[in-house]
Amino acid sequence: MPEKPTPHPEQWVDLYSDFLYRYALSRVNNTAVAEDLVQETFLSALKAYGNFDGKSSERTWFVSILKHKIIDHYRKKSRRTKYFEEPGVDDSEDFEENGFWKLDNAPADWGDRPEQALHQKEFLQILRKCIAHLPERIAAVFTLREMEGVESNNICKELGITSSNLWVMLHRARRQLRKCLEMNWFGSLETEH
Amino acid sequence: MMLKKINMLLMKMMAMMTPSCDVITRRISESYDRKLAFRERLSIRIHTLGCVLCERYRRQLMALHRMLQKYSGEIDALAEDVALPQETKERLKKKLHESS
To answer: Which of A19, A73, A92, A161 is 20 to 30 A away from residue A38, measured at CA?
Structure first.
């Protein structure tokens, strides 16, 4: 019989806590909550270490535990309050009453710059900051959907929200992110030409 | 020249026959989260043929989606300035030591 692996929880803290903390913080936007989530992740890992098959790296394993903790966190939040209840879309900032673009807020021409931007570290920093600037609940559903690739109906089930509510939030997230990227990256490049 | 003008006019008309830009942009976003009905996909196609702003919006959301698909794993690692305070780490170690 293979020997049962022994966990080294104190090493975990040195090796993985910063990474997990960043991961959590970019998804919950609150340092105290992020710290708690890291702690809970390690504690659960300790309990479940017997199930760790070593097929994936320890870090990947911790991340998968942390993901569940993050969803749990939001599930509790959404049960307690109407946290994820989104009022209807307010488009008036971008659109005229007749539904056409307000020219001042309409998308600028990015040309082929998105292709080039991908090779630049500064760009990813800006993308990260733009995500961090989204309202917390919007960022939460957006990262679940676009970064973790969770299916829409699963997000709705986990958080107890309706699909149309989810779609409105995701629409807001994309709209704000697009605008943030334009203001801080693509738009500012345009003035240099 | 004349043909070009007629063509442009036609495109504009096509955009006007479809729902307005606020509806179309919402639909473009939703195309990433649910399966659109054929007529909804068609309305986006036709509208963006004639509406350069919504066409930009569509392309930019596509670029954003691709970026996130490719780099979502790296974005967290980039936050090098973010770290868990040392005292929190010590507390964590103690807690884990007690629980193990």
So the answer is: A161
